[in-house]
């Protein structure tokens, strides 16, 4: 993969930074919030992914000599380029843990740094977190509906270029069991697996010979693609012949794969043929433009499919394609800042903030998060963000702080987990989310409230701007 250096950014970040530097504002402190406005896929939740990958990149982020030479050609002044030569991220980051379940319009991550440092990491932060959270969410939806069937990511060839690399990481966090993507397996320690393509079968004069040669190479993990010519007339019978030959060698055919036609019908008929031959242990894999809705339908048809291979619809996050995560200024030079909008939902919340997940005394999520000033540690009353008449007493409920210090002085403050550990954490957190937020159609919306103090601060700032 190409190396990510500090020019993995938008030009405007550098132009603003240049102006901050020249006007001696760059060392002023700033606080930015990362959040998104809408759950993807019309769903009721989002899986937060990409954080630990981001932290590792921020730790070593710098402008290389080649970067600086390039920027010189873009008319950046010498003294600013000298500043960039020494640039490192020294700030603090407070964040929800990677893999947690998050919802719209509340901070998921807070950056506290000098204005210039906070600005120069915006693009990479949004790029990594938005994409991986989108794909982890898509993956989680399929995991939820697929129950304990295996889910494999086959998407690299259909991904938006190298995005497929991060899609595989995110898919695993969202609950996939493995990927066909070898470099993702190598770098993120994700299990890799693969079957065979139609070209392999086509390259032989007959299908049986193709299956035999393949099986000889894979005594344990052989999966035969049975739909090249005629699934039930040739494909499955040829796979059965090879499975019997494998048995004679003390081996076992692992699975057959279906990749076209009515997958429920072919899975049922293939299952009958395999079982009649005493091959109950041979699994059935299916692929071809799967997504959570097709998987749901196949499950409802009792299709005996053990393994789903999912490509395009997973890695491109269809039909959304992007999570709308944003990075908004909340404090600058010690002063709270606000962005006013006609659209109430777009008015930002000033100050450095904390977010609490409200639970009952047993830790069960009650369906609301509350945003407060970071200095508050137990919230008595939570207010609706816009409706002055809606409020709720939460003083006697438990409140779990979600934003934890994950970086300080540019150093990572948490133990970096394996992707498998993040996936396991995500699975456990997802179990805590009540069913009504998980359904595909009209899911419940996880509520948001703001503390009395934060509400007052926001109103004061809005008034002062009106004047
Ligand atoms: N039993 C089924 N129930 C619901 N959806 C299915 C079922 N079988 C297949 N699908 C889905 O329907 C879509 C189109 O399948 P279709 O039958 O057109 O495949 P196909 O066009 O025959 O494949 P190919 O063109 O590669 O031969 C795919 O997204 C597939 O996953
Ligand atoms: O349908 P998706 O969810 O995107 O899953 C990936 C698809 O990629 C492969 O097809 P392709 O035609 O590229 O190669 P093949 O010759 O191996 O079938 C595979 O057979 C799947 O159908
Ligand atoms: O291993 C497979 O079957 C596979 C891999 C990538 C894309 N489609 C299928």
TrEMBL record:
<protein>
    <recommendedName>
        <fullName>Nicotinate phosphoribosyltransferase</fullName>
        <ecNumber>6.3.4.21</ecNumber>
    </recommendedName>
</protein>
<dbReference type="InterPro" id="IPR007229">
    <property type="entry name" value="Nic_PRibTrfase-Fam"/>
</dbReference>
<feature type="domain" description="Nicotinate phosphoribosyltransferase C-terminal">
    <location>
        <begin position="353"/>
        <end position="455"/>
    </location>
</feature>
<keyword id="KW-0662">Pyridine nucleotide biosynthesis</keyword>
<comment type="similarity">
    <text>Belongs to the NAPRTase family.</text>
</comment>
<dbReference type="GO" id="GO:0034355">
    <property type="term" value="P:NAD+ biosynthetic process via the salvage pathway"/>
</dbReference>
<feature type="domain" description="Nicotinate phosphoribosyltransferase N-terminal">
    <location>
        <begin position="9"/>
        <end position="130"/>
    </location>
</feature>
<dbReference type="InterPro" id="IPR013785">
    <property type="entry name" value="Aldolase_TIM"/>
</dbReference>
<dbReference type="Pfam" id="PF04095">
    <property type="entry name" value="NAPRTase"/>
</dbReference>
<keyword id="KW-0808">Transferase</keyword>
<dbReference type="InterPro" id="IPR041525">
    <property type="entry name" value="N/Namide_PRibTrfase"/>
</dbReference>
<feature type="domain" description="Nicotinate/nicotinamide phosphoribosyltransferase">
    <location>
        <begin position="151"/>
        <end position="348"/>
    </location>
</feature>
<dbReference type="InterPro" id="IPR040727">
    <property type="entry name" value="NAPRTase_N"/>
</dbReference>
<dbReference type="GO" id="GO:0047280">
    <property type="term" value="F:nicotinamide phosphoribosyltransferase activity"/>
</dbReference>
<comment type="pathway">
    <text>Cofactor biosynthesis; NAD(+) biosynthesis; nicotinate D-ribonucleotide from nicotinate: step 1/1.</text>
</comment>
<dbReference type="GO" id="GO:0004516">
    <property type="term" value="F:nicotinate phosphoribosyltransferase activity"/>
</dbReference>
<keyword id="KW-0436">Ligase</keyword>
<dbReference type="InterPro" id="IPR041619">
    <property type="entry name" value="NAPRTase_C"/>
</dbReference>
<dbReference type="GO" id="GO:0005829">
    <property type="term" value="C:cytosol"/>
</dbReference>
<keyword id="KW-0597">Phosphoprotein</keyword>
<dbReference type="InterPro" id="IPR006405">
    <property type="entry name" value="Nic_PRibTrfase_pncB"/>
</dbReference>
<dbReference type="Pfam" id="PF17767">
    <property type="entry name" value="NAPRTase_N"/>
</dbReference>
<dbReference type="InterPro" id="IPR036068">
    <property type="entry name" value="Nicotinate_pribotase-like_C"/>
</dbReference>
<keyword id="KW-0328">Glycosyltransferase</keyword>
<comment type="function">
    <text>Catalyzes the first step in the biosynthesis of NAD from nicotinic acid, the ATP-dependent synthesis of beta-nicotinate D-ribonucleotide from nicotinate and 5-phospho-D-ribose 1-phosphate.</text>
</comment>
<dbReference type="Pfam" id="PF17956">
    <property type="entry name" value="NAPRTase_C"/>
</dbReference>
């Amino acid at each position: 993969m190409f190396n990510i250096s500090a020019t993995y950014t938008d030009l405007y970040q550098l132009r603003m930074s240049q102006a901050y530097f020249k006007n001696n504002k760059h060392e002023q402190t700033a606080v930015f919030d990362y959040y998104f406005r809408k759950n993807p896929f019309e769903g009721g939740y989002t899986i937060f992914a990409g954080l630990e990958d981001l932290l590792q990149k921020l730790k070593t982020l710098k402008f290389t000599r080649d970067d600086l030479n390039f920027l010189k050609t873009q008319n950046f002044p010498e003294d600013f380029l000298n500043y960039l030569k020494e640039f490192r991220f020294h700030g603090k980051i407070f964040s929800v843990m990677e893999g947690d379940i998050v919802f719209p319009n509340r901070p998921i991550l807070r950056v506290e740094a000098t204005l210039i440092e906070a600005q120069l990491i915006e693009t990479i932060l949004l790029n990594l977190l938005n994409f991986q959270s989108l794909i982890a969410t898509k993956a989680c939806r399929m995991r939820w509906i697929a129950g304990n069937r295996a889910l494999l990511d086959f998407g690299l060839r259909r991904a938006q270029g190298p995005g497929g690399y991060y899609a595989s990481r995110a898919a695993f966090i969202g609950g996939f069991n493995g990927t066909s993507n070898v470099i993702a397996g190598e770098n993120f320690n994700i299990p890799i697996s693969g079957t065979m393509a139609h070209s392999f079968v086509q390259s032989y004069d007959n299908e049986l010979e193709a299956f035999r040669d393949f099986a000889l190479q894979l005594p344990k993990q052989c999966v035969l693609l049975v739909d090249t010519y005629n699934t039930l007339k040739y494909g499955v019978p040829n796979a059965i012949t090879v499975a019997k030959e494998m048995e004679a060698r003390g081996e076992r055919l692992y699975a057959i794969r279906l990749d076209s036609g009515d997958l429920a019908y072919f899975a049922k008929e293939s299952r009958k043929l395999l079982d009649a031959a005493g091959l109950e242990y041979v699994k059935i894999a299916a692929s071809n433009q799967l997504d959570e809705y097709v998987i749901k339908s196949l499950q409802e048809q009792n299709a005996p499919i053990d393994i789903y291979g999912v490509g395009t619809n997973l890695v491109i996050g269809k039909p959304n394609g992007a999570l709308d995560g944003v990075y908004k200024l909340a404090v600058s030079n010690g002063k709270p800042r606000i962005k006013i909008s006609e659209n109430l939902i777009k008015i930002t919340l000033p100050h450095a903030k904390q977010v609490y997940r409200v639970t009952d005394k047993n830790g069960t999520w009650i369906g609301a998060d509350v945003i407060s000033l970071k200095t508050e540690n137990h919230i008595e009353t939570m207010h609706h963000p816009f409706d002055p008449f809606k409020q709720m007493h939460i003083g006697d409920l438990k409140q779990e702080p979600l934003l934890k210090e994950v970086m300080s002085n540019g150093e990572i403050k948490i133990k970096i987990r394996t992707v498998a550990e993040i996936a396991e954490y995500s699975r456990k957190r997802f179990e805590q989310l009540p069913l009504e937020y998980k359904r595909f159609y009209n899911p419940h919306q996880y509520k948001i409230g703001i503390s009395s103090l934060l509400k007052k601060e926001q109103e004061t700032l809005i008034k002062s701007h009106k004047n």
